[in-house]
Amino acid sequence: MDSLATALHVTTDDLLKGSPQLAPWRPAVGIAPQLSDAELVTLAVMQALLGFTSEARWIRHTRAHLRHLFPYLPKQPGYDKRLRKAAGLIQQVTRLLAVNTTLWSDDVWIVDSPPVECGRSHGTVKRSDLAGWAEYGYCASHSRFLWGLWLHLVCTLHGLPVTFALTGAKADERQTLLAMFDVEPGRLSDRVGQTLIGDKNYFGAAFERQLAERELRLLRPARKGEPERAGAQLFKPLRQVIESINETRPSASRPSVARLSAAPERPQSASGA
Q1: What confidence tens digit (pLDDT) does each residue in 214-265 have?
Q2: How many CB atoms lie within 10 A of CB 208?
Q3: How many separate domains does the chain show?
Q4: According to DSSP H, which parts of 2-130 are helical?
Q5: 153 and 84 in one domain?
Q6: How far apart are CA 252 and CA 117, in angstroms?
Q7: Quick check: 252 and 117 in contact, CB under 8 A?
Q8: Domain containing 196 — which CATH number?
Q9: Do 122 and 94 lie in a common domain?
């Protein structure tokens, strides 16, 4: 873990030296932060790897066990504030690390849109900062309605995220997928013939034509009344892989939603590696 933290810190520090504009903005005159941006990113990644969902507990853990790596550690409110402002930097570092892996060149992607439940009580729905973004929607996998967001995720068969978006429950999965690719057109520039595997909800002649224009080949199970489609023999063994990667079990408490929705200007969707 120490070696991983050191390598991540060096990688992030070199990235910021080459592209200082990626760092969160701060005035030229003022008190310099005692915890560098590279150290902040390293802390955030280690928190995720070690499974700490509570920032207060994570800070206590780092003070007790990681003092040899981080001479200065902020208190929980300061850490949380810095982390929210560094969301863009963390996204850029994630993309850099992803592109430098062999998995990035995988010629097969899978797409799915699992629900992210954000609350159950009527009071939560009214008081939550997600009100107006999160919506009630029906989850066919669990045969019930829930209140929250839908995570539209494109990733490799090994689970490496390629792009994602968080939307309300009523957003069309097909249009969201097309918009995710349109946000960064260069992502498909070297992906001629890329195969995209999805479920039955990604249907429609017009939709498949738009994917073909982006040089993407769609494989999906046949819907009721349709003839058998190409690649049908692949779906049964791959279905469990897709479900495992997307972790479709809804939860009333998902830390990732809190992190993503904590941006200074809450977007209707987000895209990145």
Answers
A1: 999 998 888 888 888 877 777 766 766 766 666 644 443 333 433 333 333 3
A2: 16
A3: 2
A4: 2-18, 37-49, 55-65, 76-85, 87-99, 122-127
A5: no
A6: 5
A7: yes
A8: 3.30.420
A9: no
Q: Do 134 and 117 touch, CB atoms closer than 8 A? A: no
Supply the range of the domain harboring residue 242.
104-260
- Distance CA(204)–CA(75), nearest Å, equals 52
How does DSSP classify residue 134? B
Strand partners, 108: 195
pLDDT at 243: 67
Counting as low any pLDDT under 70, the low residues of the chain are: 236-237, 239-240, 242-273
CA–CA separation, 272 vs 33, rounded Å? 27
64 lies in some domain: yes
Rounded CA-CA distance 236/242 in Å is 10
Residue finishing a domain among 55, 72, 99: 99
pLDDT at 43: 94
* Domain end among 46, 77, 99: 99
pLDDT at 68: 92
Position 184 scores a pLDDT of 82
Q: Is residue 151 part of a domain?
A: yes
